[in-house]
Model the fold of this input.
Amino acid sequence: MAEKEQLLEEMRKAVIEFDEDRVKELANRWIELGYDANEAIFEGLAAGMEVVGELFAKNEYFVPEVLMCADALYAGLDILRPHIKAEDRTETKGVVVIGTVEGDVHDIGKNLVKLMFEVAGFEVHDLGKDVPLEKFVEEQLRTDADLVCLSAMMTTTMPGMKKVIEMLRERNPNVKIMIGGAPVSEKTVEMYGADATGKDAASALEEAIRMVSSLREMKRRKEI
Done:
């Protein structure tokens, strides 16, 4: 057990230190020992990326460091993913459309949330940054996504979120909507008519799982 915990800790550290070769070495060692791949992904790689997000928020890490950390994480994922148990691999938790709203080119926070969704088994449709508002509605309808995630890092682009939410509610009242970014608060959620926000990538993931579960339960009740 001590060896297992040590491997997880070293994996987290290797992601934080953007040491891609070390991440690969540790991921291969994990598989050799027959440990659960999902555990390494969540408790090792993703946990390390969460720390990276905190360092970025505190201006201790900047965009180049975050991108190198993401490269290290993906290097580990490439090794671990083929070893995920069949039952975990085939079950998609939900479909997500995500993007940064029109006029806003900040996407590091959005990319961290996207990473967490992908690691957790969501099907993610990333629209990128500076996304025309109508595009969120078009993509939700095209993919029948369970959840739409809107990001804004500037107060000047936040009203775009409200417009997207109004358009989405008009076309699909049941879709779940999450908003995020530095200026977004619980009050913003209430004012704009969204369903939730997440203070960081991990809490955004928790909210997403909760919302998709409630949406599926609602669909099941209608079918009965």
